[in-house]
């Protein structure tokens, strides 16, 4: 059975054992043990774009069931509630499949926002960098 891809997926590139998938909101790098999701610049997204981002992210998680998902937020300038909601939805689905999700690359504003919402270490696992997230 063919895997269902998010509607806005633009392409898939195979680099040896790593599969890179990209859409207009994020890029996915699938390795043997770790799946890395890298958000692209979301500064110009509107409400409809965030709704599609949420659908694409949830579709990806549900269709691929990553055992370990690490999320690169280094390109995120503004931490919208819609983005936080998308991350919460993804984390919930990853955890429901006995997987783990770790965030890294957060700017000071985004980290402060998640701390104020009491999401750090209660819901989200925050890592200092990509290598720490991969080994967590």
> Widest sheet: strand order?
1-2-3-4-5-6-7
The CATH class, by name, is Alpha Beta
Query: What's the average pLDDT?
Result: 85
CATH topology: Transcription Regulator spoIIAA
Number of domains: 1
How is this structure best described in words?
- By secondary structure, the chain is an alpha/beta fold.
- It has one domain: Transcription Regulator spoIIAA (2-Layer Sandwich), CATH 3.30.750.24.
- About 35% of the residues lie in helices and about 25% in strands.
- It has 4 helices and 7 strands.
- The chain has a 7-stranded mixed beta sheet.
- A hairpin with a 4-residue loop joins strand 3 and strand 4.
- Helix 1 runs parallel beside helix 2.
- The N terminus is likely disordered.
Quickly describe the structure.
Helices cover 36% and strands 26% of the residues. With 136 residues, the protein is an alpha/beta fold.
């Amino acid at each position: 059975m063919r895997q269902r891809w998010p509607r806005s997926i633009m392409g898939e590139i195979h680099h040896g054992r790593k599969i890179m998938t990209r859409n207009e909101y994020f890029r996915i790098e699938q390795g043997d043990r770790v799946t890395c999701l890298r958000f692209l610049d979301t500064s110009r997204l509107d409400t409809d774009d965030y709704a599609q981002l949420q659908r694409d992210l949830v579709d990806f998680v549900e269709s691929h069931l990553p055992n370990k998902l690490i999320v690169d937020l280094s390109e995120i300038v503004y931490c919208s509630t819609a983005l936080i909601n998308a991350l919460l939805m993804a984390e919930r689905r990853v955890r429901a499949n006995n997987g783990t999700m770790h965030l890294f690359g957060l700017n000071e504003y985004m980290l402060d926002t998640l701390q104020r919402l009491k999401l750090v270490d209660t819901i989200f696992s925050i890592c200092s960098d990509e290598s720490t997230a991969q080994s967590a």
